[in-house]
Design a protein that fits this description.
Length: 138
């Protein structure tokens, strides 16, 4: 009886994994190379130090023969941690028994992220260098 249950569960697991492989991730995965990078605060104490290093790294990687585009983001798809902040809204009182208002989920990306990942613009506008640091050119 246990053997039959294990075989059935294994079959369902294989079928689910196969179905996941066919899901469109929303970007072109062919030809992409990804890696994670951790910059220790002892070596890069300021956010500007980290940003400068990332920019130099992107420039050097762009010069490698065969590399068409380089971008950066925090969190590789599809496994991204959610960065959520609790918001306060004018006119809405907070209660101790109510949930926090987590409405601003964000990810850091370079301005060329969408073109590198070949993600089409559906509406609005793409990022520009003027958007860096919270500035907007809208």
């Amino acid at each position: 009886m246990l053997a039959v249950a294990l075989v059935a569960c294994s079959g369902l697991l294989i079928r689910s994994f196969s179905a996941m492989q066919r899901v469109d991730p929303g970007f072109r995965a062919e030809g992409l190379t990804t890696f994670g990078l951790y910059l220790p605060q002892t070596a890069f104490p300021q956010a500007t130090d980290q940003g400068s290093f990332q920019q130099r790294l992107a420039e050097r990687l762009s010069s490698v023969p065969g590399v068409e585009s380089v971008t950066a983001m925090n969190g590789l798809p599809p496994r991204r941690r959610i960065n959520a902040n609790t918001m306060r809204f004018e006119g809405i009182k907070e209660t101790e028994d109510g949930p926090p208002h987590n409405v601003d989920y964000w990810q850091f990306v370079y301005d060329d992220y969408f073109s590198t990942m070949e993600i089409p613009l559906v509406a609005g506008r793409l990022f520009t260098p003027a958007d860096a640091g919270g500035r907007s050119s809208a």
